[in-house]
Design brief:
The complex is a heterodimer. Chain A is of the alpha+beta class. Chain A has a single domain, classed as OB fold (Dihydrolipoamide Acetyltransferase, E2P). Chain A has helices at about 30-40, 85-90, 90-95, 110-115, 120-130; strands at about 10, 15-20, 25-30, 40-45, 50-55, 60-65, 70, 75-80, 105-110. In chain A, the strands form two sheets. Chain A has a six-stranded antiparallel sheet with strand order 1-2-3-9-8-5. A three-stranded antiparallel sheet of chain A has the order 4-6-7. Chain B is an alpha+beta fold. Chain B contains eight helices and 19 strands. The N and C termini of chain B lie far apart (about 40 Å). In chain B, strand 18 and strand 19 form a beta hairpin. Among the domains of chain B are: about 5-50 and about 140-230, Gyrase A, domain 2 (2-Layer Sandwich), CATH 3.30.1360.120; about 50-135 and about 245-270, Aminomethyltransferase beta-barrel domains (Alpha-Beta Plaits), CATH 3.30.70. The model of chain B has no long low-confidence stretch (mean pLDDT about 95). In chain B, strands 10-11-12-9-3-13 form a six-stranded mixed sheet, with helices on both faces. The longest helix of chain B is centred in the middle third of the chain and has 13 residues, at about 200-210. In chain B, helix 2 (about 30-40) crosses helix 7 (about 220-230) and helix 5 (about 150-155) crosses helix 6. Classes of the chains: A alpha+beta, B alpha+beta.
Amino acid sequence: MKYEVRDNLLYTKEHEWAKILNGNRVLVGITDYAAKLLHEVVYVSLAEVNSEVKYMQSLGTVESVKAVSDIFSPISGKILKFNEKLAMHPELVNSSPYDEGWLVEINAKNLVAERLKLMSAREYSSFIEKL
Amino acid sequence: MKHTQLYNYHKEHANVVEFAGYEMPLWYSGISAEHLAVRNSCGIFDISHMGRLIVEGDGSAEFLDYLVPSSVPNLSAGKGLYTVLCNESAGIIDDIIIYRLADKFLVVVNAANLEKDLQWMNSKNNFGAIISDITMKSSMSAVQGPQAVEVLRKALGIDLSGMTRFGIAEHILPIGNLFIARTGYTGEDGFEIIINSDKPERALAAWNKIISAGSLPCGLGSRDTLRLEAGLCLYGQDLNEKITPVEASLSWVVSKAKGKYVGKQIIENQMQGKARISRVGIEMIGQGISRKDHQIYKESRIGEITSGTFSPLLKKGIAMGYVSSEYSSIGTDVEIDVRGQRVPAKIVKLPFYDQTLYGWKRTKKN
């Protein structure tokens, strides 16, 4: 199977992506690889707005028909908002994992140091190739 | 790793996973799409991994009758029955279907239990029955859904509309020598077809014909969601050797007026209302999906989920589990611990869907 990896994003080994927006704002989602592996997302449960999340700790779960999977935060900070469309349309995580299927926006606390721990698109592509 | 005769097709068209020592299709077009095809029209599953045994010889009826709580001598030729193999403590070794053919029995068992069942049956065979394993010498598919009769009329040129539920017949067709039974694991009308041949091209020819006639190829993913929606048990999850048929809410397989059989004493005691726990259906009321091993609470813990999924038809979390029998009545409010959160749920009757609209007993078109 073919998996899309976007150039302008940073990636975790747990298959989350992070997109650095203006200032310290970071958009987070799961990768096409994760979405395809999960298959048919039916329910997304995310941490509440204003709650604090830590680097590589759970910020919620994504459930498919078959299984449940934790989502790990690529970055520490405070949740600014979550994707409200997913309550009615969880399938956006599958159909548009990098755009309409984004999960949360985080106000990052320690972006400069933590972004170095994430993989580039090229590193992530070769990481999933070996799986 | 073992392969069914249709493995090359699966490898090309499906996401393949390991199951019971076989590489099997998990899904082709998607679990929900396949699930809904079976509920609304027709789907086809490769179930060649299921174990197939022929039991024959003079003592075969008495032998099988001794192994299960159902009455085998009362089973007429051309009929099948769902039942369980129990151990001496009435724990379920496997759930099986016994079909009576003209001069022998066909026993279909779970893939993962085939070796265990064979050992058990051989150890109890003081009846002179002859047991042969035909699993690898045959293939088996399930054609399921309200359009199954029409699809098979078109694909094989035979009219199966007159068959009774759980009926079985032998057919000699250009495609090969088949057994066709009106059974399945989806809750829908449908047929299970055994082709008595080890030639993969025969299995593939039938498979392709049935797909062309209007059947969607379906994998183990939808097989699991369909059987759970229908309230049917999966061995290894909902059934095991520590659970009796009475506890598993399968008392209906027990024949009350029968002689000696393995596990009889315990089953009869429990039938008089002494089962500690009971299998129930559970529907989520709150957000979230219950999964296997989640704990069930009333004021305190009352049981455990054994199977849980998202229902593609009902669009909500459904599950089966065991609760202390005093809490097993339909309508009981419970809570499920879904990864640390207590989610409200309710004990409901099985199957989960409206039987006037879905399933083989449906009375209305939808």
